[in-house]
Amino acid sequence: MAYSDKVLDHYNNPRNVGSLDKNSFDVGTGMVGAPECGDVMKLQVKVNPETGVIEDAKFKTFGCGSAIASSSLATEWLKGKTVEQALEIKNTHIVSELALPPVKIHCSVLAEDAIKAAISDYKTKQGKATSTEAAVVA
Amino acid sequence: MSTFPKEYYAFFGLDRKLSINEADLQTRFYRLSREWHPDRFSRKGAEAQLQALDATAVLNDGYRTLRDPVRRAEYLLTEEGFPVAEQRSKDVPPELLEEVFELNMMLEELKGGDESARPQLESAKENFLKLRRDVDNELTGLFSKYDASDAQSETAKQALHEIRAVLNRRRYIENLLRDVDRSLNPPAANAANLEERL
Amino acid sequence: MGTFQIDFGEQRRSKIVGIDLGTTNSLAAYMDLTGPRIVEDPEGRKIVPSIVSVLEDGKLVAGEPARELLLTDPERTVYSVKRLMGRGVSDVEEERKLFPFRIADDSGSAIKLKLGNRTLTPPEISAAVLRRLKDNAEGALGAPVTEVVITVPAYFNDAQRQATKDAGRLAGLDVLRLVNEPTAASLAYGLDKRKQGIIAVYDFGGGTFDISILRLHDGIFEVLATNGDTHLGGDDIDNLLLRIALEDVRSEWGVDLAHDPEGVQRLRRAVIRAKEELSFVPETLIRLEYKAKSYERAIDRNLFDRLIAPVIERTLVSCRACLTDAKLTPEQIDEVVLVGGSTRIPLVRTAVERLFQAKPHTELNPDEVVALGAAVQAGILAGDVEDQLLLDVTPLSLGIETMGGVVSKLIHRNSTIPASATETFTTAVDGQRNVLIHVLQGERELAKDCRSLARFDLKDIQPVPAGFARIEVRFLIDANGILNVTARDARTGAEQTVEVKPSYGLSEDQVEAMIRESLDHAEEDMRERQVREAQVEADNILSATEKAQKSAAWIALAPEDQAAIEESKRELQAAYHSNDHYLLNQKIEALNKATTKLAETMMNTAVRGALRGTKIE
Predict the structure, then answer these.
(1) Alpha-carbon distance B85 to nearest alpha carbon in chain C (angstroms)
(2) For residue C446, what is the nearest residue in chain A, using CA coordinates?
(3) Shared domain check, C282 and C239
(4) Mutate: best of B43, B71, B197, partner C, most C CBs <10 A
(5) CATH number of B8-67
(6) What is the pLDDT of residues C493-514, one digit of tens each?
C-alpha cells in the first residue's frame, strides 16, 4: 500500500481537535489558510514559559481531509518539543512520516505555516510579557 | 497539418478579455471541434491522430475554462503571472481567515444540532448566497475595469490583483455553501449509492 | 496502402465495421450506400448471442451453437460475461450469487473463468464473440475486416473500456474507437435532421443501464451529461422471476433446481420467454417440462409490474441525476429515444414517458439501433459521413489519492473528451527517486469508496532535497474514454518514465502474451486467414494499378517509374499463390510504394480537372 493505516486513522479520528484560551499569555495561536483549496486552519500551542516546552497543542481545520490529517499529526508531534525544535518541523517531515503518496504542493504547506504562526504569536506575547516584567522590576 | 496554440484564448481566436460572449464561444467551439476532433484523423496516420488528440484536449479544456467566468478569470490570472496555485497564507488577509473561521464554527454548531436547526441552516445559506452575489457583482465590475484598460497598464495589473483577492474570498464562500448544502440535503441518492445500500 | 487507396476514390477501401458487443446479444453493422446495415450470417441471422462454449478439443465457439450448448453443456458454456469485464474477484460477489460463473481459484486482479479444460479471462471470451462477428462481416462484405468501432455502456469505467479494447485486440481487430451505446443510438436515429434540440437516450439492455442527454446542433451531437449503472439490466428482471420459479419448483417437486445447471438454464429460458410475452399480452405462463416433471405458473402484467417496479425506479433515479447534471428540467427535453431489449416492457415505456413528458421514439428495433449507430460512427471515422460529429463525455470523475486517503479530483464527470488535467507534485524525502500516484474514478470523497484504476510509478526522478522536485503529471482521457498518463520533470523538462500497474484487468504484458498464445493455438487457421486476407488485398491493388495504367497519368509517368511498377506487379503476381502472407504483404507494400507517384499524378490531374469543371475518367 502506498500509505499507512496511520494516515487514515488521523483522517478518521483526528487527535487534538479543539481550542485553547487564546487570551492566555502562554498560548500561541496561528490562523492560516490555503486559498487555492479554500482551507482554513487554526492551530494553538500551550507552552511552559519556564522550560519552553510545548505542553499542549490543539487545532481546528475546515477544509479537505488532507489538511485535517496533517494538522492532526502536526499537533501530536508538537507536544513535548521545545519551541525551537518545533520551528524545525518541515511539512515534508510530516509527509514522510505519513508515508504518503504524491504531495500536492499547494496543500502541503498549511500545517508548517500554522506552526510557525502559532509560535510567532506566542513569542510576541512573551516578548510583551517579558518587557512588562522587566519594567516592573526596574 | 498545421500546428495549434496551447493558449486557450489564442486557440479560440479571442482577445484576452474577461468578459466573453457565450453564444459566440459555443459557435467557435463547434467549428474548431469539426476541424480538430480525432474522428477526423482516424485514417491519417499515428502522428496526425496524436496531434488531433492533443489539440482537442486543449480545445475541450479551454472551452470548459472559458465558458465559466470564475475558471476563466483564474486562467487569465495565471497566464498574466498571478498564479492562483501555490498561494500561501500570507496571500490571504487575516480578517478574511477570521471571518471564514467564525462562519465555519457557526455552521458546525448548527450541523451538530437536530432538525430544529434547519431554519437557521437555511438562513445561513441565504447569507452565504448573498455573500456570493456580492462577490460576483464585485467581480463583474473588476472584469469591466480590466477589459477597459490596456493589458500592460498599472490599472490592469491592479485589477488582476484585486480579482485574485476576490476569487480567494469566493472560494471560501463556495466551500461554506457546499457544506451547508450537504447538511440541508445529505448526498443525493444516485444510482451508485443506491446500489450500495441494497 | 494509405496513399494509394485514398487516391482512388471509387476503389473499395476495407470497411470499418461497427459492433455492438452486448451482454445478451451482439451485432455487427456497416455503412453501405443507403446507410447503416446490419450484418447477417450465412443463415440470415442478425443476432449473435453473446454466449461462448469450450469444445472438447479446447476450441471456442460463440453465438448460436454456444446457445444450444448452454442447455446441454452448461459447465463449459458462459453467458453475460460482459458483467465481468474489467472487474476483480472481490467486486463480483453479487454476480456470483445470480450467475453460474465458475471463477478460477487463481484469479487475481483479473477474473479467470473455468470452462471445460480451459481457463479464460473475460476479454478472451468476448474475443470469441468478436471473432464470430468478424467472420460474419467478412462473409457479408466479401473482404477482410480488421478495423472496427465497438460500443460500450456510457457508464463503463476505464478498466471496463480497456478490457473491451483488449478483447478486440485478442480477436485480431484494430479497435479504432469505443463509442458509448446511447450516443451511438442517437446517431442511428438520424435525429440531426431536426437541426437543433435536446435529446434523452434511455438505454436499458440485458446487463447495463445508461441515460445520456445530448444537445444537437447542426450535425454535432454534444453529450451534456450521462449517468447509469453498469450492473442493472434485463438479467436482473430475469433473476427476479427465476427466484420465484425456483421457489415454486422446490415446493412442488421437492427439488432444488438451483444446484442443477441444466435445470436452471431451462427454467431461465422459460422465465425469459414469459417476460418477453408479457410485453405483448396481459397474461402468460411460465412453463417447464424437465426430467418427466412439469411446472406451470400463471403470471400477469400486474404482478410482473409490481415485481420489477424497484428495478425501474433505479433507472429513474439515474435519469433525474443526469438531468440535474445537464442543468435541465424534464420539460426541456425535446425527444426521447429508447434503446435496448428491456425497453420493450410496457412499464418501462410508461415510466419514461411520464418522467420526460414526451412520447419516446421506438421506430428502430431496440436490439439493432446501437449496432446501426456504431456503423454510422465507423462511417464518420472512414470519412464517408462528413456532416456529423460526436462529442462525448467521461461518465466518472477522475482523481488521485492525496493525503488522508482523500481523492483530489482532476477531471470532473461529464467533461467533454478528450480532456486533460495537469498537476504538479513534489517529493517528500531527500533524494526520493519514485513517486507513486494512485488514480481513481468515481464521485466519492475517499479513495476507498472510489474505483481504483491504476497506480502510476514515476521513476528515476532526479535526486533533490525533499520538496524541491517539480513533477508535472498530465492525465489525458482520450476519445475512447481511456486514461493516458505522462509525466515530466518541470525543472529539467525531461520526460519521466511512467510504469502502469492496472488495479483490475490485464496488464499490457498479459494481453500481449495472450495474443501470442492465441497465435500458437490457432496458428494454422491464422495463417490461412492471413494468406486469404493478403490475397484480397493483392487483388485490390492489382486491379487498381491496371486501371491506373489506362489513365493519362500513366503516359505522363517517367519510363523508369513505369518499369518499376511493372516489375513490382510481376513480383506480386508471382508471390500470389506462395501461401506466404509475409512475402505477399511485402510485395503488396512494394507495389504500393512504386505506384505512389502515379497515384499522386492521377490525384493532381483529377483536382485540376475538377477546378476546370471537367471530369476525368
Answers:
(1) 10
(2) A65
(3) yes
(4) B43
(5) 1.10.287.110
(6) 888 777 777 777 777 777 777 7
